[in-house]
Amino acid sequence: MLFIVFAMIAPTQAQTADEILSNYFENIGGLDNYKALKGLKMTAKVNQQGMEIPIEIIQLSDGRQMTSINFQGKEIKQGVFDGETLWSHNFITMKAEKSDAEATSNFKLNSNDFPDSFIDYKEKGYTVELIGKETIDGAEAFKIKLIKEPITVDGNQEEDVSFYFFDTENFVPIAMQSEVKSGPGKGMTQEVTFSDYQEVNGIYFPFSMTQGVKGQPGSPITMETIELNPSIEDTAFAFPEEETVGEEKK
Asked: Which of 48, 61, 219, 246 is spaced 20 to 30 A from 213 at the CA atom?
């Protein structure tokens, strides 16, 4: 009896989750328009302990992406991925350093998620489940669990699980939570909140975000401009081999 009941409930929940996602894509400008995006170039400012730091974020449909930070007149690139190599500038030495094989492999798994992990999620092998409702910053939200391809953590495979909170009125994400898998914050819940959705060429994007650890003050990010389908030179993503060679010669 219980098996039959659960078998009947599960398809209903899946359908409800799909309806939420369908409303979401319709409200932000249409799924076809969203899927047609070839890239995004976002200029923003991050408020870090009262200091506003300009950043530029580039994401392309082929998986290439990077974040450029303008700090004290210097350009510092973080999370640069050219399709094969993942690298960043070291904040102390300012040298470009490649990420290890594990981090690169995990990063590459997400390269097919532009511009949204929920697009064609079944074809990607992901699963989506409606958990219920929760209140986020005073707003009622649908809580949806997203399970993606397993990632590797310290040599072991682990589930890649995120929880998205969709506003029950407008069906847009207002928060995302996931467990920190490595580093000093391992085991904590990282949280990103989204607000101030604005239209850019017929598609809506959040222009205000806060990123940090759940239950603690985060770092506010304010979007200034979002450019659709930007033209970006391939060299912008390339690991600067010449810097390494120059240091070795010295």
From this structure: 61
